[in-house]
Amino acid sequence: MVELERRPRDDLASLRIDRDAPRGRGRPRWVGWLVMAGLAAIFSAASLLAYRLTLGRVTPVRVAYAQLAAAGVAPAGELLTGSGYVVTGDRYISLGVRVPSRIERYLVEEGQEVARGAPLVQLDARQYQAALASAKADLAHARADVELRRKELARSRELERRAVSSQADLDVAVNRLRVAEAEVARLEANVAKLQVDLEDTVVRAPTSGVILEKLKEVGEIAVPGGFAGSGDLIRMANLEDMRAEVDVNEADLARVRLGQPAQVTPDAYADRRYDARVVKMYPQINRQKGTLKIEVKIEKPDAWLKPDMSVRIAFLADAAPGPAAGGEPHAVVLAPREAVRSEAGASFAWVVTEGRLRRQPVEPAGASGTDQVVIAKGLAGGEALVLGDATGLREGQKVEATR
């Protein structure tokens, strides 16, 4: 019985902590802090990486454009749209050579802007320099011969006057002088031709423009002509007159006319648009496709537009005049109703600028029709405004604008 009573006490005694006992070699306390700091650093890095990946992801958004219109004027609407390409008014200029020679070096690079008359390609000119020097020597010899024939003619005339020589001898001297003078004229023409050949060993720009492509390599032999442009060395375009061309179905030609306003939107930059006007309607229908090619001139082109870029062309109706409000008329900005949003009693719109979102505060002034809102402040017209659901959009987010 005594043994049973001592066991619980012994067990409790074994669980008691003896604070006076010496401490063993346990784990240092700073190791725990180091582990916690490492976990915190890993969490911060993962959070930063996730944020950057989210921020760098490109989100497609649907956009429409704010329109600038005079007071009391209904905005121009789209009558017809189509897909086309950017071209230049002078089309593309492919430059070849007039004289055959080896390409010594190119004096320009792709994308470089050049002025009219600027040198573009240098050919090997040694053979033409030698030919020109030889022709000049022949010309000097012929001119010396002319001087001699003139002196002989003068002596023949003096002898004929003294009756020492006959008229036949005088006629022979006159003929020799004329032959010598004709030879000088022939050699002068040959020198002029060889001078032109030498000058043509430098290919120059026929007009101002930009270099699009170099078609041959240095060291190749350039020859005039060639089949299907095989003799071309360089390709350039005049970007001062930028246009867009589109094939319009002949059933829709009644909606298009010369001078009609249009808008051009590049597929690569859906948040940019350019005002244009119809300047050319080709005179012949394409029988196979049943279309007519139409060109619109872009009024204010910039560096964003590139030749052969695919674009969307919208032919617009002329703005219809309406009753103006009281007082002096002033321009107003019209935005799609779907693009104007409200939050905490304030109105704003998401604007796409160079592929990124910007939250723009706006001040609506009233409705215009059923799907547009008059904006008193905040927009200047021409901005690309995001339509539809804006959940998850953030300031500075990368987006891809579509229509």
Describe the overall structure:
28% of the residues lie in helices and 34% in strands. With 403 residues, it is α+β, with helices and mostly antiparallel strands. The strands form six sheets. Strands 1, 20, 21, 22, 25 and 26 form a six-stranded mixed sheet that branches. The protein has a six-stranded antiparallel beta barrel with strand order 4-13-16-15-14-17. A four-stranded antiparallel sheet has the order 2-19-24-23, with no helix packed on it. A hairpin with a 2-residue loop joins strand 20 and strand 21. The longest helix is centred in the middle third of the chain and has 36 residues. 18% of the residues are buried. About 2% of the residues have low confidence.
